[in-house]
Specification:
A hairpin with a 6-residue loop joins strand 3 and strand 4. The protein has about 210 residues and is mainly beta. The chain has one domain (about 30-205). The chain has helices spanning about 1-25, 95-100, and strands spanning about 35-40, 40, 45-50, 55-60, 70-75, 80-90, 105-115, 120-130, 150-165, 170-180, 185-190, 195-205. Strands 1, 3, 4, 6, 9 and 12 form a 6-stranded antiparallel sheet that branches.
C-alpha cells in the first residue's frame, strides 16, 4: 500500500501543474484602464474664461445642423464612453436694473447631444433664477465692467452625462429650447442665437486598441 502513495502523489502534482498551465495560457488580456480627461472642444462662439474657476465657457447656439454646434472630439474607445459637461443659463447682469427693482430674471434651456450625422444621443436641461449678483455662478474676465469682467455671465449649473456609443468619435452640442424672462421681455430659441453656456467638458472611456 505504501508503494502506491508516492506514484499517486506524483500524478496528482502533475495534473495540478497541467491544469494551472492551461489556465495561464487561456487567460484573457486585461482590458485597458478607464481614463477620464478634458475633452477637445471646438467652440463656435466663446464667452471667455471664468475669474473664479479658470474654466473656459462656450455658448451653445440654437440650430439643427451638427456642424454649427459645439464640436466635441471623443477619443477612440472600446465600448461606450461617457461625455460629461456643466450646463449653465446665460444672464446679462445690469447693476442699474437691480437697483431699479428690475433685476429679476428666469431661464430654462435644453440642449441636445448629436452625432455628426444628426442622430440624437441625449439631452441636458438647466433652469435658474436671478435676483441679485449672488445668483451668478461665475464672472468672465476680459470685459469693461468693474474689475474687468463681462456683463454676460453664466447662472445656474447642471452636470449632464450622456453615453457615447462605440465608434462615435465626434458629437455636437446644439440648443433646442430657450424660455427666458428678463427686464426686456421674453425670449425663445432662435437659429444661431445662444441658448445656454457649457463648461468643464470631459470624457470617460476605455482607449481603443
Amino acid at each position: 500500500m505504501r508503494k502506491l502513495v508516492l506514484p499517486v502523489a506524483c500524478l496528482l502534482l502533475v495534473l495540478c501543474a497541467d491544469a494551472t498551465a492551461q489556465r495561464r495560457t487561456t487567460r484573457k488580456p486585461a482590458a485597458p484602464a478607464v481614463k477620464t480627461e478634458p475633452a477637445r472642444v471646438q467652440c463656435r462662439e466663446s464667452l471667455g474664461t471664468g475669474v473664479r474657476t479658470k474654466a473656459s465657457y462656450c455658448f451653445v447656439l440654437a440650430g439643427m445642423d451638427p456642424a454649427e454646434g459645439v464640436i466635441v472630439t471623443i477619443p477612440p474607445h472600446t465600448g461606450p464612453a461617457t461625455l460629461t459637461f456643466d450646463l449653465h443659463n446665460r444672464h446679462t447682469y445690469s447693476e442699474e436694473d437691480v437697483r431699479a427693482g428690475r433685476g429679476y430674471a428666469s431661464y430654462s434651456a435644453v440642449v441636445g447631444v448629436l452625432t455628426s450625422k444628426g442622430d440624437l444621443l441625449g439631452r441636458g436641461a438647466v433652469t435658474s433664477e436671478f435676483r441679485s449678483v449672488k445668483d451668478l455662478y461665475e464672472r468672465i474676465g476680459g470685459g469693461a465692467g468693474p474689475g474687468g469682467v463681462k456683463a454676460v455671465a453664466p447662472i445656474g449649473a447642471e452636470t449632464v452625462s450622456v453615453t457615447i456609443p462605440a465608434g462615435v468619435t465626434e458629437v455636437s452640442l446644439l440648443g433646442e429650447i430657450l424660455d427666458s424672462l428678463t427686464a426686456i421681455g421674453r425670449e425663445s430659441a432662435a437659429p444661431g442665437r445662444p441658448v445656454a453656456i457649457v463648461s468643464n467638458v470631459r470624457v470617460e472611456y476605455r482607449p481603443g486598441r
